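User:
I study polymers; will you set down one protein's sequence and C-alpha cells?

Assistant:
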Amino acid sequence: MDIQELWPGGPLFRQSEHFRLSTDSVLLADFTQLRGAKRGIDLGCGSGILSLLLAQRDEGLSMTGLELQPEAAAAARENAVLNGLEGRVELLEGDIRQHRALFRAGSFDLAVSNPPYFPADRGAVAPRADRAAARTETSCSLAELCEAAAFLLRTGGSFFLVHRPERLSELCVCLSERCLEPKRLRLVCHRADSAPSLVLLEARRGGRPGLKIEPPLVLTAPDGGESAEVRRIYHR
C-alpha cells in the first residue's frame, strides 16, 4: 500500500489494493454541509476518506465509519491513525443492514455514503466479493441503505450521497418513502456540454418538500484542463 497526500497540508491516505481513493468521494465531501453537526456516520466507508475529510473540516465533528469488508475497515482504521484522528474517527466493522442492532435510532446528525452504483441483478458481478461489494449492491441495496440512514438520523439530520444519474428517480423515491426529503441536488458533468455522469444529493430527515437544484459541477475547463472548481476542491 502507498501513502498519498491529497493536497499540501491535507489528509494522508493509505491506499488498499481493492479500495482505491475515488474522485466521487472527494466531490461528495465538498458537497456535504456540516451545519454544526457533532456526530456523523459514513455508511459503507471503504478506506475512510469521507470521514477523514469531514473530520478535518470541523474539530467539533466526530465520525463513525461503518464497513462490511475487513480489509477496507482495517485500511480506514489505519488512515484515521495516520492523520491523528483516531480520537474523532471511529471505525466499526459491520453490516449496514444490521443498523438497528448496532446503533440507537436518531444517533447521528448527518450521514454520508458513496454506495455501490449498480443493482446486483443488472450486468456482470465481479468474482471477488470485495470488488463486487464496491460496485454492485450485493451486500446492501439502495432501499436498505436509505432505510439505515432514516433510522440513524435524528429529525432534521441530513443524508448526503453520490450516485448515478440514471438512478435518480429510484433514489428520490427510496428516500421520500422513508421520510428523507430530497432538498439539494447537484449534477456532475465532465464538460459543460456533456450529460451528467454523477448526482450529488442531500435529503433531510422529516424535511418539508422542496428541492433546490444547484448549478452543475463541471470537471473540465474549456481548454481541457481542470476547471476552477475542481482546483478549488483539491486545493490546487
Notes: Residues 70-82 form the longest helix (13 residues). The chain has a mean pLDDT of 92. The CA atoms of residues 7 and 38 lie 25 Å apart.
